[in-house]
Amino acid sequence: MLRIHFSDADLGRTRLATAPDPLWEVAASLHRLQSRRGRWAYAGWYRTARQRMRDQGLERLVRGVLLPLYPRAAYFPDFLTPAQGVGDWDTGVEALLATPPRRVRQEIAMLDRTVGAPPWAAQLAGPKAREEFAGMLRAYHETVVAPYGEQVQAGIEAERAARCRGVLDNGVEGMLAGLGPRMRWRPPVLDVAYPRQAADRDLHLNGRGITLVPSYFNWGNPVAFADPELPPVLWYSLLHEPPAPAGPLGTEVPGRSLTSLLGRARAIALYTASTGATTGEMARAAGVSASAASRHATALRDAGLVTTVRNGPSVLHTLTPTGASLLRAATSDPSGA
Q1: How many CB atoms lie within 10 A of CB 84?
Q2: Is the pTM of this model over 0.85?
Q3: Residues 6+ away with beta carbon under 8 Å from 164
Q4: Collapsed DSSP state (helix, strand, coil) of residue 204
Q5: Which residues does 221 contact at the CB level (< 8 Å), separation at least 6?
Q6: Which of the listed ranges 35-39, 132-136, 320-324 does the model predict with the highest average pLDDT?
Q7: Whole-angstrom Cα distance, residue 220 to residue 31?
């Protein structure tokens, strides 16, 4: 558990990012490549990303350089995702390159103590090695993250619209109270569910405020910097996993309120579309035939909740801002969990 302590001054300095954090999305997407957790939700991206990496000859780079530095574990270096990078790739890379060598060495040493660091990682303290590394990050980002830019931005805009309702009703505290089942606002503390392997800790904002950054590729637990002295940032999933019973093949079933509104299979189809799904993936998630899944997708599209585009021989269904808002409201409502 991460406990974030707010003062009145911190509430006034809390903001919600207007755009994705490109360097964080790189980190989170690398975590998706390392885990089957939530794989169904990213099935279309995962399949396309692997093919694009093969086409661009990036597989060895990803396996040998990026994955060892971004382990899906209790820790990976903070300097890889600088706070200045929220919303802008170039600014983030400049901050990464400007990280003091001493800090880079300290964080690589912490990575080594935590899960083990590759022998060459210490070289990143040098400017030339870090410039080469930044070029590798850019190649990876342009290949497998940037193509989803419009979808990521649409999700963030839908999230901002939902959080703004909380601000209009009850100020910043209303926004914090609506952040979802993995974050619980108990004034003046925001309790944040953290990975099991991470130790419980407290983060005192001390008047600095905090930047909340919705993330497309983050799945499950929100993440903050390990170093409490860095500018406070909290990255969290655009769509949290709702606490719900298992459906066919272990698929999560959306909350009761959404199921009552749409019906079980159609609610699962909408939930599956949260990060992109083909009609076949919708069918497998809901445990229905392909023709039935197609009918559900058509109904959702006619209602303005999903949009459909052709992706090679398949069609890909994704949420519209309206669909994202509906799903967020349903999965954030304790009575519908």
Answers
A1: 17
A2: no
A3: 175
A4: strand
A5: 182, 192, 193, 194, 195
A6: 132-136
A7: 11
